[in-house]
Structure formats: structure tokens, C-alpha cells
Amino acid sequence: MAKRIVIDPVTRIEGHAKISIFLDDAGQVADAQFHVVEFRGFEKFCEGRPYSEMPGITARICGICPVSHLLASARAGDAIMAVAIPPAADKLRRLMNLGQILQSHALSFFNLSAPDFLLGWDTPPAERNVFGLIAAHPELARAGIRLRQFGQEIIEILGGKKIHPAWGVPGGVRSALTEEGRDRIRAWLPEAFATVATGFELFRRTLETHREEAFIFGNFPSLFMGLVAADGTWEHHGGKLRFTDSSGSVIADHIDPADYLEYIGESVQKDSYLKSPYFKALGLPGGMYRVGPLARLNVCERMGVPRADAELRLFRQQGHGAVTSSFLYHQARLIEMLAAVELIERGLEDPDLFSRDLRAEAGVNSPRGVGASEAPRGTLFHDYTVDRDGLLKKVNLIVATGQNNLAMNRTVAQIARHFVRGDQIPEPMLNRIEHGIRCYDPCLSCSTHAFGQMALEVRLIGPDGSVRREVTRE
Amino acid sequence: MAAKTLKIDGRQVSAAEDTTVLDAAAEAGIRIPTLCHLEGVYDAGACRLCLVEVAGTAKLLPACTTLVAEGMEVVTQSDRLRRYRRMTLELLLAERNHVCAVCVANGHCELQSLASEHGIDHVRYDYRFPRWGVDATHPRFGLDHNRCILCTRCVRVCWHIEGAGTKNVAGRGAKSFIIDDLNQPWGDSESCTSCGKCVLACPTGALFDRGSTVGEMERDRTKLEFIVNAREKKQWIVSE
């Protein structure tokens, strides 16, 4: 009988997860649960702070996607001030968000997931990581790292530093782009296009050898949610929310993100610190929805840039209506990287980026402000209620990984049903579960991502609730 | 006025008799770390960072409030002093809630600079995590008690440069805190002229311009000295 060790809560970390697999009387997998056992308490300890400090504070939630929090928070601040920010500030925020999406996706695809594609499930974990990738495919590993560097440099050029810039503020941004900065960004573009093309080529080969995975790694009907522009084009900052179902039909559209509470409910799992949002009108389990690259590509009508649109058409051939396999999050990520590079190239010519009108000034004009933005992993909401002096009374943050929680559970169950027989958990099975979760690129794995594996604990639980087997990998 | 001669760090120094050890050292190019000292207002001896060793007395004395004396021998740098200064800074950091990474004064904070100068990469004492709030009732400025080190610079500039007498200290010991008028919200203060000198004087992020974000509170503290000099020496007034 396995021993159970409980660390509760594990604080101030970004990468601890636990998975429970429940067996029925016949020893077959009945259900699976993905638990996030970290507790951070941002929503509580931000109470009492001035809303103007929130972009800086909430950016600290994550070292991979600080920009997402920074921008969502700044937007919530705009709403509290009830201002329309200068057009230049909006364009600059968009540029930084594209850099953010690019660097995060590059990390996920080239450094964290590529080892699975190229080195294989059965490679020992000690080798199946970015270092193994560097040893086996140095050029690819280097190109991926450099693509991430490009995204990070956009963030640094605009915000002064790569991680946790305090540049996005309520009312706008703190500084404009310089001509020198624009030239530095422009110089990267040919290499960025080439690396993304390499990524597409790698994934095409991967799909040929991973047909089974593409079919069982989170392939199920669900709703999808993401921001789209007024004309239905792919959107990453601004725009309105759209929900579609797995047939591709739009079931709710033109939703102001500020009204998210009317559409999204949050259920609480008793053994995870991750809340499980769902589409209210359909309740649970029917209201399960996915966010992030796969969802954004499913809800939009077009990418709005030619090369990415061509890839989107190929992508859509893999679904009937919507593309439902979570394994194809990887492909969606590539298409978004391509669109990001195209949009950066196009946007750089805009003279507004050098404007000096960057920041609207106002006091507290609205007691509540909601800011939404597409983070690399999906739609991010910051919802603040303030007193008349602008001090926070209530904070609600809905992060992408939470919204994918139900889908991740489902994915783990699907993979487990396929690979678990009896009460054994062979190592390749552990690797596959890990990858099923990694398709979503969940943010909780940030800290341990760097070593190519999550701190993972898998428990097999019998019908009587007893732990049949427990495998832990730190 | 008689001049006194003394030794600071072995160096012969001469200074007017009402000069503080701190000023005499500065005159001789010897820097003693300070936090509550501010050019332009009188010294309070509140922070204890400028403690020096004086031959003949076992106690450490604050350089900012100790006057020079004939034959005095002062040591400003020793292992003992460095130990005490480090301890003082660590206690200041542990006393309230200083979170540099997200502070409006990050990169422009005197407490942070001194901590870095003294090699403080961790604090050996338990943080007290007191519950202090933010007064954001003033239309232009905010006061975050979490970041206050009770140096009283703001009180001194308010009384002795602006002459408004709005800022004061209430309570005792570690529970002391900065108040406006008779401990009412800053925005309700009738005496405050909204001059902003207290904000200029603050060494940390405790006093800030409303709407400031991380690292945005850069202050030009020489402005205060400038005002005092202009007033006392009548620099800009051309007499017939």
C-alpha cells in the first residue's frame, strides 16, 4: 500500500500538480482528477491596495506570462477611470501582447513539448527534456530559444525589462517605441518566420507518427471561448467574447468581457485550488469550455493575416466544425506564432508607435472595472471593485488555466482509460499523462517547466477509496 | 565662533563649534549612511543609521545630533558599526510590509539602496506583517503606512519648511504612525496646503503621488534644500 504524503497548502509556487485516477470494481478507469495543490492568495492580499499598483502586483503572479496580467490589470484600471486610452497606447499594448504570446508559445512548443515529439515517450525523463533536445537536435533547440528571445526582446524594448515590466498602467502605457527599438524588432523578423516554418514542418512529421495521440489526447466535444474582433477576426487584446460549440456554431456572441459573470459560473472542487469555470446557460457538465490557442482558432473566422490564414484553413480540415483534439493545441500555437510575427511586421510601420500621447489621466469614475485580454493560454479576466479613493475592496481573477481545468480532467481520464490496465502505472503512461496536461501548457508548471517535466504525482484509487498505487516524480 | 579640531577616521578635521559630526565628516569627504537626515531641516536622530564610535564613551552616538568637540576622536567605519547598521536596516525591513518588487519607489528608495549597500539579501528577523492601511483620501497624494519607517522627514518639512503643521506622529514605539491634523483622513485635513513637500521628502514609497505605478516615484530631494536656501539666504531677492 502506498504511503500518502500531504503538503497542504504548498505556497508560492507555480508548478505543483497532483493527479488521481479512480478505478471501478473491474479495475478499469472510472474517472480522473487533476489537482492543483498550490495556494497563492493574490485575490485576498491585493485588497486594500490602490488600483494603480495592480498591474505591477499581479504581473508577479507569473514569470512566463507577466505581460498578460499586466495588460489585463491595466485594462481593468482603464475601466475604473472610465477612460478611452490614447490610440497609441492601445497599439503599443497590442505589440507587447504579441511579443508575450510569441515568447510563451515558443517556449511551450520548442522547449517543452518538442522533446516529447522528437525523443519519444519511452525515453527516460532524465533525457526527455530540453537538454536532451539540445544534445539530439541542437539547431532546433537553439532556434526555439531564439524565437522566445525575440518575443522577450519586444517586451524589453517596450517595457525596459523582459520579465515583470511595469510598463502597462491604468490609462495607457509609460513609454513609446523608439526608432532604434523598431529597427531591432524588424531585424529579427526573417529569422522568426524561418523558425516558425521549422515548427510547422516538425509538427507535420509529428502528426504522422502520433495519430493515436492526436485521437485520444483530449479529443472530445466541448465549448470554446475566446475574444474576437468586431468582424470575427482573431483577436488577442480588446474585442468581444464569443462561445462556439464543437460543431463550430456560435452559441453566444458580442459579449462585453465586463459581463463575463452573466455567462461564466465557477464551480469549486473540494480537492483542488483551481476553480472550474463553466458556461452558465448549459450548466455542468455540458458547459465545459476550453480557452487558449485551440479555442481562439475555433471561435474566430479568420486570422486576418495571409500566411496564418492559409495555415488556419489546413488546421480546420482536422475537425468537423470545430477542431476538438487538445493535441492540436500545439498546431494552434504554431499558427498563432505565425500570425503574431505577421502582425508585428505589419504593425511596425505605424507612426503612432512613436507618439508622446500615451497616458490618459483621471480619477476613480467607476466603482468596478473588468479587464480582459488573451493570454497565451487563454482569456484572462481581472475584475476589481474599488472604494471612492481607488483602494481595492474585491478582486476576482479568472485565469486561462482555470478555465481549462474541466477539460484537463477529461483529458487525463481519456488518456488513463486508454493506457492504464489494472493498478500499474508504467513510466511511458506517466509521460503521456504529463503530455496530455502539457497540451494546455498550464501555467502552474512554469517553475518546473525548465527541466522538461512537471513535479507530478499520480494516484490510482480503488472503488473503496483506497490508494492502490502512487507514483511521484519530483 | 570658535573652531574645534577633531579626528574622524584618523583624519584631522576642523569645524565650527555648532557643527554636527555628520556635517563635519561630510565636509571632510567622509560619508556616513543616513536615512532620517534631510538637508534643509533639523535632525531628529530617528533612524540610528549614522551611529559612530566616539573615543571615551562606550555608547554609540548618532552623528547627526552629536556636535563636534575639541579633541574628539570619531570612527565612522568599523565591524561593530557595520553590524549595527545592518541590524538597524533589517529591523526596519522586518517592522512593516516592504515589498520592493511592486513598490512605487522601487529603484529610487533610500531604504532599498542602503540595504543593498550593506549586502542585505535576507532579513534574519521574523517579519511582523502588521496590518497597516493606505490613506488615499487626498486628491493628489497617498500615504501607505506599510512602507513608512517613521523617519519623520515629512513631519519636519511640513512644520519647518511649509509651516503648515499638518503631519504629525501618533502612538508610541513600533505602533507609532504618521497622522494628518488630529488623526483624520488626509483628504479632510484643513491645514494641508497640498504643497507636496512631504512626498518629496519621503525616503521610501510611503508617501507617493496618486496613480503612481511600480518604480515611478522618483523625487528630487534637493528641491527642499533649494527652497530653504532661497528663503534663508534670500537668494532670489535683489535688495536696493
Annotation keywords:
heterodimer, A: 474 residues, alpha+beta, Cytochrome-c3 Hydrogenase, chain B, 16 helices, disordered N terminus, B: 240 residues, Ubiquitin-like (UB roll), Alpha-Beta Plaits, 2 domains, three-stranded antiparallel β-sheet, 6 helices, globular
Explain the layout of strands and helices:
The complex is a heterodimer of chains A (474) and B (240).
Chain A: E1 10-11, E2 16-23, E3 29-36, E4 38-39, H1 42-45, H2 54-59, H3 66-81, H4 87-119, H5 130-136, H6 138-159, E5 168-169, E6 172-173, H7 179-209, H8 211-216, E7 223-228, E8 240-244, E9 250-255, H9 260-263, E10 264-267, E11 276-279, E12 289-290, H10 293-299, H11 306-316, H12 329-347, E13 368-375, E14 378-386, E15 392-398, H13 400-403, H14 405-419, H15 427-438, H16 446-449, E16 455-461, E17 467-473
Parallel strand pairs in A: 1-4, 2-16, 7-12
Antiparallel strand pairs in A: 2-3, 5-6, 7-8, 8-9, 10-11, 13-14, 14-15, 16-17
Chain B: E1 3-8, E2 11-16, H1 21-27, E3 51-54, E4 60-62, E5 73-75, H2 79-95, H3 110-117, E6 134-135, E7 141-144, H4 153-162, E8 167-170, E9 177-180, H5 197-201, E10 207-209, H6 222-232
Parallel strand pairs in B: 1-5
Antiparallel strand pairs in B: 1-2, 3-4, 3-5, 6-7, 7-10, 8-9
Describe the structure.
Helices cover 42% and strands 19% of the residues of chain A. Chain A is built from 16 helices and 17 strands. In chain A, strand 2 and strand 3 form a beta hairpin. The two termini of chain A are 20 Å apart. The two termini of chain B are 30 Å apart. Chain B contains 6 helices and 10 strands; from the N terminus they run E-E-H-E-E-E-H-H-E-E-H-E-E-H-E-H. With 240 residues, chain B is of the alpha+beta class. In chain B, 40% of the residues are buried. Chain B has 2 domains: 75 residues, Ubiquitin-like (UB roll) (Roll), CATH 3.10.20.740; 129 residues, Alpha-Beta Plaits (2-Layer Sandwich), CATH 3.30.70. The chains are: A alpha+beta (474), B alpha+beta (240). At the A-B interface, helix 2 of A face loops of B.
